Amino acid sequence: MAKSHAFNFDGGDELNKMSATWFVSYLFYQRVDKSHRNWECISTRASRASVFGRTAHYHEDWLRKVLCMNDSKLNINAIGLKAAEIKGMAKKILEHGL
Question: By residue range, what is the domain housing residue 32?
Answer without folding.
Answer: 12-96
